[in-house]
């Protein structure tokens, strides 16, 4: 089966065709820059929505609902008549015949191909941990974490066994990067607000959130004084920060930290990232956990018509290290490449891609965030306000910005979290064995 039969409007029009695999930050920016140009664009994504991953932790901790941070791709790109959207999962590329092979058996021809398939969590050879310790990459995972947290509280409210209650009220977050820090802070805030107001048999002293980092510091990409501030603030919020501690096993009962089993109601994974497996489709060696090496114009080394950007690509900075896996990198690369691909031959004469760093940030909790702008840094309340403004601004459209702003203001004033829903059907999926 060919997905683009002659009757297809794309095929009857013999214009140059750019196929983009992945409509995340990078793919969407690329498609947007190609919108309303003389090129036919086909965007393939296995999800029908674009996800604002930086706020996924708020869905996982019941501060926002899934729809607040996800937008149908058709809604974002539908206004461009030259852009066609395909809900399908790519599973390979035939570089000889210039076709993307879809997992459902279909194929899509391209003249130029952009691979923007992002990254996945890396369980370092222990994929079985994924079941007990979801990462934070998709709405499904965020909902699993939310259910598990909320169910643990419900069970803790009912149990008469103090040891079981303590275990249920323990949350372990593995990995001290921005996601781990954000999750640990948010779980602590969620737990304390619920214990204080909504539950009758949960003493706040039984709540325990452990942030485990195998390295010597959390937030490794930030300057040391911001790392130290983050540790201090997390500890003030009741989070135990365990540095230099390895997690060697994760089960339904909890995690083994530095050789000791710590029973826990929920474990969240935020420890490692690997690129999507797209490098295998090209039969090349991936660099730094599977990223596709690209040149200064985002062209995959050795392939004239194939480009890659965002988390799944490896573009070296001036020191040879890969550009960071950040939304701002993917978006800038997407816009850059889209503009180049819009004009025939522009690639050859174009200036190389230059990443303009707009600053690196992480939020720690209510009233506390950090910003690193390279030459100067910011921490505390004003960093938190700036963090909120930036994240609202980066949301995909005005409606989402309004929705999130209103909810954040309401939550700030009332300390209430509105999205604390446990779906009956999800119980089986998420309840760890400890929840009997
Ligand atoms: C929890 C979390 C918090 C983050 N916080 C921040 C932050 O605060 N600031 C920041 O700058 N960055 C942050 N990031 C990183 C940022 O989200 C990524 O750098 C960014 O999403 C990369 O964009 P991308 O386009 O490369 O990939 P993605 O945005 O991940 O998009 C990849 C797309 O490809 C699709 N796809 C994958 N494989 C296939 C396939 N085989 N077939 C079809 N479609 C496919 C996916 O469905 C997805 O839509 C965060 C990431 C996470 C997970």
Automatic annotation (TrEMBL):
It comes from the Bacteria. The chain crosses the membrane at residues 381-398. Residues 17-334 form the FAD/NAD(P)-binding domain. InterPro entries: FAD/NAD-bd_sf (IPR036188), FAD/NAD-binding_dom (IPR023753), NDH-2 (IPR045024), NDH2-like_C (IPR054585). GO terms for molecular function: NADH dehydrogenase (quinone) (non-electrogenic) activity. Its EC number is 1.6.5.9. Keywords: FAD, Flavoprotein, Membrane, NAD, Oxidoreductase, Transit peptide, Transmembrane, Transmembrane helix. The keyword Transit peptide applies. It catalyses: a quinone + NADH + H(+) = a quinol + NAD(+). Residues 358-414 form the External alternative NADH-ubiquinone oxidoreductase-like C-terminal domain. Belongs to the NADH dehydrogenase family. This is NADH:ubiquinone reductase (non-electrogenic).
């Amino acid at each position: 089966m060919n997905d683009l039969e002659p009757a297809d409007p794309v095929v009857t029009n013999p214009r140059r065709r750019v196929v983009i695999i992945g409509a995340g930050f990078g793919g969407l920016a690329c498609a947007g820059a190609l919108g309303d140009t003389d090129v036919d664009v086909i965007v393939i994504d296995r999800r029908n929505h674009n996800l604002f991953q930086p706020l996924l932790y708020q869905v996982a901790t019941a501060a926002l609902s899934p729809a607040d941070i996800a937008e149908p791709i058709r809604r974002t790109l539908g206004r461009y008549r030259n852009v066609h959207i395909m809900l399908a999962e790519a599973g390979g590329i035939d570089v000889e015949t210039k076709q993307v092979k879809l997992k459902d058996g279909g194929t899509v021809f391209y003249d130029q191909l952009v691979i923007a398939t992002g990254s996945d969590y890396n369980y370092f050879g222990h994929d079985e941990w994924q079941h007990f310790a979801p990462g934070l990459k998709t709405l499904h995972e965020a909902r699993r974490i939310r259910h598990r947290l909320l169910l643990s509280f419900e069970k803790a409210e009912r149990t008469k066994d103090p040891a079981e209650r303590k275990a249920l009220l323990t949350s372990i977050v593995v990995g001290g990067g921005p996601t781990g820090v954000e999750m640990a802070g948010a779980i602590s805030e969620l737990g304390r607000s619920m214990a204080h107001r909504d539950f009758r048999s949960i003493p706040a002293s039984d709540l325990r959130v452990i942030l485990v980092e195998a390295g010597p510091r959390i937030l490794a990409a930030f300057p040391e004084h911001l790392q130290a501030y983050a540790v201090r603030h997390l500890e003030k919020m009741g989070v135990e920060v365990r540095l230099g501690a390895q997690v060697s096993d994760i089960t339904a009962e909890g995690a083994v930290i530095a050789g000791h089993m710590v029973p826990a109601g929920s474990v969240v994974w935020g420890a490692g990232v690997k690129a999507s497996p797209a490098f295998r489709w090209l039969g090349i060696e991936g660099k730094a956990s599977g990223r596709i090496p690209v040149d200064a114009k985002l062209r995959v080394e050795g392939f004239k018509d194939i480009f890659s950007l965002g988390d799944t690509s490896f573009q070296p900075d001036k020191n040879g290290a890969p550009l960071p896996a950040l939304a701002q990198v993917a978006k800038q690369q997407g816009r850059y490449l889209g503009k180049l691909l819009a004009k025939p031959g522009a690639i050859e004469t174009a200036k190389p891609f230059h990443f303009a760093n707009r600053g690196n940030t992480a939020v720690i909790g209510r009233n506390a965030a950090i910003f690193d702008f390279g030459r100067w840094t910011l921490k505390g309340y004003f960093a938190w306000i700036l963090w909120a403004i930036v994240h609202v601004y980066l949301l995909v459209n005005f409606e989402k910005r309004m929705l999130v702003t209103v909810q954040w203001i309401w939550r700030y004033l009332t300390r209430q979290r509105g999205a604390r829903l446990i779906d009956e059907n999800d119980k089986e999926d998420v309840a760890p064995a400890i929840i009997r």
